[in-house]
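Recall the central idea of this unit: under ordinary conditions, the amino acid sequence of a chain determines the structure it adopts. In this exercise we apply that idea directly, starting from the sequence alone.
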Amino acid sequence: MKPETERYLDKARQVLSEARAVAGIDLAEAAGRAAYLAAFHAAQALIFERIGKVPKTHHGVHAQFSRLARNEPRIGIELPRFLSQAYDFKTVADYEIGPDATVPLLEAISAIEAAQRFIDRIVELLNDRANHAARNMPNPRIPSKRGGGCAAVTSSA
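Accordingly, the structure predicted from this sequence is:
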């Protein structure tokens, strides 16, 4: 896994931890926003690992993640859908005003649980791909002592 991919995942985990902390003190809007951002950073991790760059906007990340999801059945439709729906928590927390501009605590807690599943699925996909790539790497070759050719290096493990 690329170092920047790991940094996106670290950020996702950090923000998810913050979501749990603020939910624990009944700050539902902040918890909902943080749950969204945790999933957002996990989506960035997958995007970066697959294409080497990440869109600069939330909309761009959503669109690119949805494109990747179409080609990766293990992502399913629920992850892009969650990313899109959870963005509403960020919108309410950051921009909405008035008595209806609230995030119920139970919805924020549900979003935190969904964000954890989102991160877990992304990590699973990234690890599966890394393991698959490692299994398919050719054996390194070293010069043999006879005839100047190469002999395969094998593991005794």
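The chain has five helices and two strands.
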